[in-house]
Amino acid sequence: MTDPSDDLRYRAQRAEFEFAAVRKDARVAYTLWALTGLIGGHRFYLGDTGRSIAMLFTLGGLGVWALADGLVVGRRVRAVNQTRRAAVMARYGIVDGS
After folding, report:
1. What are the transmembrane regions (predicted)?
2. Disulfide-capable partner of 44 in 3, 7, 15, 52 (CB 3.0 to 4.6 Å)?
C-alpha cells in the first residue's frame, strides 16, 4: 500500500518539472525586446499574440508601445509565469485553479 504523501510528492515533482519546461525567462524577453521590440518579438515570446500582431503592423505603435514595454517586460514575464504555474499545479490537483 502506498503512502498518500508519496503520491502528493510525486505529483508535485511532476508538476514542477512540467512548469520548468514552459517557464519564460526574463533575460530572453528583454533580449527579444532589445532586438525586435518594434515588431513585438518579446510579446510573441510571452504569448501575447494579438498585441504582437498589432505591434508588428504599427511598428510598435510608432515606437511608443515598444519603449513602454521596456518598463514592464519583467512584470509581464512574472505574470505569465504565475499564470502558467497555477494552471500546471491545478492540472495535477495540487492547488485550486481559480
Report:
1. 52-74
2. 52
